[in-house]
Amino acid sequence: MISLGQLPEGTLGVAVSGGGDSVALLVLLHRSGRKIKAATVDHRLRPESASEAEGVAGLCAELYIPHSTLVWDHADRAGNLQNAARDARRNLLSGWARAEGLGHIVLGHTLDDQAETVLMRMARGSGVDGLAGMAAERCENDLCWHRPLLAVRRAELRTYLREAGIGWVDDPSNEDTQYDRIKARQALEHLAPLGLTAEKLTETAAHMRRARAALEEATLALARSCARVSAAGELCLASEIFAKAPEELQLRLLAASLRWVASADYRPRFAALESLLETCLSGENFGQTLHGCMISWRKNEIVINREPSATPKAAQVLTRWDGRWEIDPKGLENLQIRALGEDGVQCCPDWRDSGHSRRALLASPSFWREGRLIAAPLAQFGQIRGVKLAGGEKGFYDALIAH
User: Fold this and answer.
1) 12-202: which CATH architecture?
2) Strand (E) positions, 99-197?
């Protein structure tokens, strides 16, 4: 019997592409008696994708499972296709889950997927974090992603479906060697005689996850000793303490700081991060940008602020802005929100009384109507309340530990 492990109570969202892994997950959850809702992302990258989504919808109808098809509009897509499709899939599923009132989404990644991921990351020269592979559970804000099949082989799931008399779709791109994952899949067949099997690679991932957990705890301890976060979102690292830490912890804390300030999904490229660390440890005054952040030196502190030009354009006021600001939109329906910027600071005669640096205020939330500044709460201008840094300083510390 295939185990799904310990999944949370309540209704679960399930991502179902129509392939064997996700269809097997859907059926396993259904037969376990769990209450579920399913969604299929139609990337519109192949002519067959719409009919495949319809096939999933038909199966869900037979099983009395609510189903939604989420279509990716990729007309303005640029850059790496796989990365763009992956990000779109996650964004579409996140939006669907929140609209459905779901706090958990279950994914059908298998032991084979984990092994392929580790092998690809080895080829890229990844460190401990990369070789830890995919997490069985990861929570981001109000949504948790679960992978209960990471200990199950792909072939076992297909055998399960055959015995159940349920079909699935084989994506032709799974044979296309222009994709790194398919190259890794084929390479594993040749590496197995050397002992480098899918099972061994997943064992490596488990060892690396333990090492990562220890490093994260050490990074958190370093952060508590040298980091502070202002109410305006400025993050400062006491340079004397930071400079004495091991290089691995310095790199981790610096990367985590940039990610948190920019609300970025990924850390910056290692070469750029390594170069920035060298600059930070130089003991000289400096100022530069990286990863949507401005990094500078001030009074024996490494100071990290959000880069104003990297914040969202002026738009309708929502409950979350620039990833890390919580906004109460009540009464703000006729206003737009954007970074305060240089033109906004000039409208705030009392900004120095706020106690916040000018650089921090430049990227802080401000509210406008027809090109006129109405309020800039962090710069002590206007009467708007209900604007705060999500999680405050604790939110930064929490972000240092993988969930």
Assistant:
1) 3-Layer(aba) Sandwich (3.40)
2) 104-106, 137-140, 143-146
The CA–CA distances, whole Å, from 321 to 76, 204, 338, 377 equal: 23, 39, 9, 14
Q: How far is CA 166 from the centre of its chain?
A: 33
Q: Domains of the chain: which residue ranges?
A: 12-202, 213-307+394-399, 312-391
Q: What is the mean pLDDT of residues 147-169?
A: 96
What does the pLDDT look like over 241-292, one tens digit per residue?
999 999 999 999 999 999 999 999 889 999 999 999 999 999 888 999 999 9
Q: Which CATH architecture has domain 213-307+394-399?
A: 2-Layer Sandwich (3.30)
Alpha carbon separation from 176 to 5, 22, 168, 173, 183 (Å, rounded): 33, 20, 19, 5, 8
Look up residue 161 and give its amino acid: L
For residues 148-154, give the mean pLDDT.
Answer: 97
Q: Can you tell me the distance from the alpha carbon of 90 to that of 97, in angstroms, rounded to the nearest whole number?
A: 10
Please choose, from the candidates 88, 105, 133, the residue with its C-alpha nearest in 3D space to the C-alpha of residue 11. Answer: 105
- Yes or no: say if 308 and 360 are a contact pair by the CB < 8 Å rule: no
Read off the tokens for 355: 């106690």
